[in-house]
Specification:
By secondary structure, the protein is of the alpha/beta class. The protein contains 15 helices and 8 strands. α6 runs antiparallel to α7 and α11 runs parallel beside α12.
Length: about 400
């Protein structure tokens, strides 16, 4: 028992009889004490004056409380409240979806501009260094500054006629905007260049099905590579693309195009080397019709043998296209190598005299400091630059955006 009593008290059991009696008395008295406390509270009375003031305050507050309550017609049912909450949730979801779509659309654009900016690094460094060296040497805007800027633009492969035009526009803008600081001149030149590049339509017309893109250019400018990159891009966009190997005169041209067709995952129509280019075009169109192709890309005229032969060859191809695809959208794109500078401008002039060139593909901009020829081609030849190559990757052939080009040229 001593053992039980000792450990029982420690664990809370085995209390003595005296302790049990005291505990029972406390339990019995607890309700009585509670009742007495409540009775005492009820016996307390407020003074008559305080009760009257409390009633007045309550009556004054009552109308305000009634005004704050909705009438029966204004009260929202559970169903209305649910519908309102659902509508708000749908609006928030739609707003989030719109923001997400904008970000998704903006992301590729930012990526393209970053590539353009990186690809124009050599041209930008050369272009800006020439302009900055002139502007920093002057304290005021005068005729001598205009003459020095004109020479700097010519040295940057902008071309004589185009440089004269830019400086002439600069004189007018300085006078109209009352530009007095040489540092402000550079911004004005950027605006003029952007406007100059926007004079032509730089977009590709591939609205018909099938649409035809004819690509021409001399050997070594990146013609076959450009075709392969263009085919890959349209393929990624979900277009059904077919290539026509109509450059049958250049050795290995057909094999190179086959490699790009395999790499891009598109079909190709080809004949033996030395075949009639027009016959290749005819078979390519027939294959495109039977397979429901969206885009036909033709590799044609790999060399400027002479104007007459080139004109005869392209005219024959054009007649085949018109006969087999009446009303189809046709782009004739000339591929030029940016690293050749003014020689590329001369090629544009010669080819445009022999064929109706609708646009330019300017390649190898990333490896050249002579990107200024874009301005000369656009202004002097009135041929829009439609595609530019700013890297060696398969996705580095971009649509030409005049505003972005001008911005990347100066940033």
């Amino acid at each position: 028992m001593a053992f039980k009593s000792k450990f029982g008290k420690f664990f809370g059991f085995g209390k003595s009889e005296a302790e049990d009696t005291v505990l029972e008395e406390k339990v019995e008295k607890a309700p009585e004490e509670s009742i007495e406390a409540n009775t005492a509270a009820d016996d307390v009375e407020l003074p008559t004056e305080e009760i009257a003031q409390a009633d007045i305050a309550d009556n004054e507050a009552q109308p305000f409380a009634q005004d704050t309550q909705l009438s029966d017609s204004e009260e929202l049912s559970d169903e209305d409240a649910f519908e309102e909450t659902t509508d708000n949730a749908e609006e928030v979801a739609e707003e989030k979806e719109e923001v997400l779509e904008e970000k998704i659309e903006e992301a590729p654009k930012k990526g393209f501009f970053a590539k353009l900016k990186a690809g124009l690094s050599k041209t930008r460094d050369s272009f800006n260094s020439k302009l900055d060296s002139v502007i920093s040497a002057f304290k005021k805007v005068d005729e001598e500054l205009f003459e020095e800027l004109e020479e700097a633009l010519i040295m940057a492969d902008v071309g004589v006629d185009t440089s004269l035009y830019i400086i002439d526009q600069l004189r007018k803008r300085v006078k109209e905007n009352k530009i007095s600081e040489p540092e402000q001149v550079k911004g004005a030149i950027e605006e003029i260049i952007a406007e100059l590049l926007c004079e032509n339509d730089n977009s590709l017309n591939v609205s018909s099905k099938p649409a035809v893109i004819m690509v021409i250019g001399v050997n070594g400018v990146g013609k076959t590579t450009s075709i392969g990159k263009l085919a890959s891009r349209y393929k990624q966009e979900g277009k059904n693309v077919i290539l026509g190997a109509a450059d049958t005169f250049r050795a290995a041209a057909i094999d190179q195009l086959q490699i790009w067709a395999d790499r891009s995952g598109v079909e190709i129509v080809k004949h033996q080397e030395g075949s009639d280019p027009a016959s290749v075009v005819f078979d390519t169109i027939a294959a495109a019709k039977s397979r429901g192709s969206d885009i036909i890309i033709l590799d044609t005229a790999g060399r400027l043998h002479n104007k007459k032969n080139l004109m005869d060859e392209l005219s024959k191809i054009a007649r085949v296209i018109e006969r087999e695809l009446p009303g189809a959208s046709v782009e004739t794109l000339l591929v030029l190598d940016a690293t050749t500078g003014q020689n590329a401008v001369n090629q544009a002039k010669l080819f445009s005299e022999a064929a109706a060139i609708s646009g330019i593909i300017l390649t190898k901009l990333d490896g050249s400091a002579k990107g200024g020829i874009v301005l000369a081609i656009s202004h002097e030849q009135s041929i829009p630059v439609k595609l530019i190559g700013v890297g060696e990757g398969i996705d580095d052939l971009q649509n030409f955006a005049p505003e972005d080009f001008a911005k990347a040229l100066f940033e």
